[in-house]
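S.,

As promised, the flavin-adenine dinucleotide run. Input:
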Amino acid sequence: MWWNPKVEIFRREIRAFAEEVVAPVAQRMDETSEFDSDLLQQLRDRHLLCLLCPVEYGGPDYDTLTYVVAVEELSRICGSTGITVAAANSLGVWPVANFGSKAQKEMVLPGAVTEGHVIVFGLTEPGAGSDAGGTKSAASRQDGDWLLNGSKCFITNPHFAEWIIATAVTRPGEGKHGISSFVFHKSTTGFSVGKREHKLGLHGSDTATLHFDNIRLSAGALFGPEGEGFKQFMKTLDGGRIGIGAMALGLAQGALDIAIEYAGKRRQFGRPIADQQAIQWKLADMATQIEAARHLVYQAADTKDKGGSFARQSAMAKLYASEVGRFCTYQAIQILGGAGYMTANRVERHYRDVKLCEIGEGTSEIQRIVIARHLLKDFERAVEPAATREVAATEPVEI
Ligand SMILES: Cc1cc2nc3c(=O)[nH]c(=O)nc-3n(C[C@H](O)[C@H](O)[C@H](O)COP(=O)(O)OP(=O)(O)OC[C@H]3O[C@@H](n4cnc5c(N)ncnc54)[C@H](O)[C@@H]3O)c2cc1C
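Predicted complex:
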C-alpha cells in the first residue's frame, strides 16, 4: 500500500504552508493574473520547485508519491500554485535528471536546488498539439553547431524560467524518429518569450509562447541521443500526467471541503441545508469519487516509484481525476448557490482552474486512446504482421 507516515507528515507540512502562505495571495493572483513574487521565492526556498531532483545534485530526491501529495495539497488551495510546482518538477527537473547527459545535469540541476531555477518544457506548437509528432520547429547542423528555429505555444512557467528544453526536427522525413530535443539557457541569443496568455482559469500560472529565432546551440545542447526527443517527451508526459491528476484531486478536495463547511452553516427553511438529503447525496458522491480518484493517482505514483510500467495507470489517473475534478467543483458551486457563483467563495475559481486538467499533458480523448491501446496491445500483436507489431508495442502514443 502507498500510505506511509513520512508522506502524511509531509502532507501536513504542505497543507499548513498552503493555508498560511498560499491562501492569502491566491485570490489576488487570480484577479491580477500574476504569480505572487514572494510566494515564488518561498517555493524556491522550500525546494518545492525541485522536489524530484536527485540527491547527487543537491536535491531532496522525493519519490513520486510525495511529490504528488505536494501538488494535491497546494492545488486544494490554489490551482495556479499547483500547476507551477507540477510543471517545474515533472516537466522540468524530471526529464533533465532522466535524459540529460552528466554535463547537462551538472549544468542545470544544482541551480534548480540552490537558486530555485525553473526549467520549462516546450513540446506543443501551433500546429502540433495532440499530434506532437507534427512538430515543425527544426534544428539544422551548421559548422558543428545547431541552428534552431520555430516556436512553442501554451508553455507553463516561461517568464521565470532559467532553462528551456524543447523538441525540434533534426532529421526531416523521419517522422517521430527525426525529432530530437535540446536544452539551453534563457539568455541564448534568438530566444524570446511572448506575452502572458489570458486564460479561462489558472490565472496566476504563467503561460506563454516560446520563440526560437536562429538560435545557435553547441553540440552539447542536444538532449540525449539524436532522434530520441519524441520518446523522451512522451515518457515525461506519462509521469507528468500523475501530477495533473493530483492537481485535479486537490482542486476537487478543496471544493468539497468548502461545500461541507458551507452546507453545515447555511440555513434555509429553518435548518442547515446539510439536513437536506439532496445536499447530502451530492456531498457523498463527491467524496466517493474523490476517494476513487485518489486511489488511481497514488497507485500510478507508487507503480512509477517501484519501477513498474505505469503509462496506462497514469492515463487512467489523469482522465478520471480530471473528470472528478470537474464534477466536484460544479457540484460545490451548486451547493453554495448564489454564493458559489461569487468569486469570494473560491469554488468558482476551482471550477475554472480544473478544466485545464482535461486538456493539458494530453486531452481526455488522448488519455482514452492511450488506455485503449494498452488494452488492445495483445490483440494487435495477434492480428498484425510482424513488421508493424514492434511499433505498435513499443512506440509511445501521442500526448
Ligand atoms: C494552461 C496550459 C498549459 C500548458 N502547458 C504546456 C507546457 O508547459 N508545455 C507544453 O509543451 N504544452 C503545454 N500545454 C499544451 C497542452 O499540452 C495542449 O494544449 C494539449 O496537448 C492539447 O493540444 P491542443 O491544444 O493543440 O489541442 P488539439 O490537439 O488541437 O485538440 C483539439 C481537440 O481535438 C481532440 N483530438 C485531437 N486529436 C484527436 C484524436 N486523435 N482522437 C480524438 N480526439 C482528438 C482533442 O482531444 C481536443 O478535444 C499547455 C496547455 C494549457 C492550456
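The chain has three domains: 5-117, 121-227, 231-381. The beta strands are 118-122, 138-142, 145-156, 161-169, 179-185, 191-193, 207-217, 267-268, 271-272.

- D.
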